[in-house]
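Supplementary Methods, section 5.1.

A reviewer requested that the exact input to the structure prediction be made available. We therefore reproduce it here, unchanged from the version used in the analyses.
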Amino acid sequence: MAGLRRRRIRKTERDNHERWIVSYADFMTLLFAFFVVMYGVSSVNEGKSRTAAAALTQAFGDATAGGSKILIPINQQEAFLRSLVDRRNARMAEQLRRQADYMARVFKGLNQVMGDLIKGGQVKVTQNARGIELEISASALFATGDAAVQPAASKTLSEVARVLSEGDQAIEVNGYTDDIPISSPQYPSNWELSSARASSVVRLFSEHGVAGKRLTAIGLADNNPIDSNLTPEGRAHNRRITVTLLAPQADRNATPTAPVLLPQ
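The structure derived from this sequence is encoded token-by-token as follows.
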């Protein structure tokens, strides 16, 4: 009996209490395979898809559970990767559709609220690579040499603010002058005048519901003229304010391209 008791004790001492290591190793292998899949679908192309599928085959094929291999057919792996890609593409397509709908609504709304000034030639609404641009003659907004928005223009700009208040895309307001120097106690140069005019429009937008974090005011003085400064008509064209609703991913430093007119 003593001998049997000793044998049982020795058998108990030989029990393996570290079998969890096998399961842990399997888990780490599968986790590695998961990250390979995420890398494979980060940039969709045929080469990466095949690489990810091959990695899955090796990883799942080498994982063991109770001595048996976990095998996933290659066609099922490719189907899984393709489903991930399709879902991502569907989300991107839906996002682009919503953005296009928003830009179209804004374009239509600006044309409606600025209709009279558009017909009078004082306002132009266009679309270019940077987004939707509203160009307003300075004479429609300000008195000569001043940056305070005229009362009649304030009402129109408040309607513009209402159209722009929807959404979260950035809005850039640029002020321009002609090349005739100005020198007054309030505005020592055209830089101060153009900056003050852009700031006045930004402040009005902010007061009428446009989030301040979306707004940027820039004074450009007589730079980037759109007409000759040799005639009174040309100088009048150059004195202007532009309000640009920047398109998603737009380059703020890009020079505006030729406008593309959207249907009204």
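The chain has two domains: 2-72, 98-246. These observations are discussed further in the main text.
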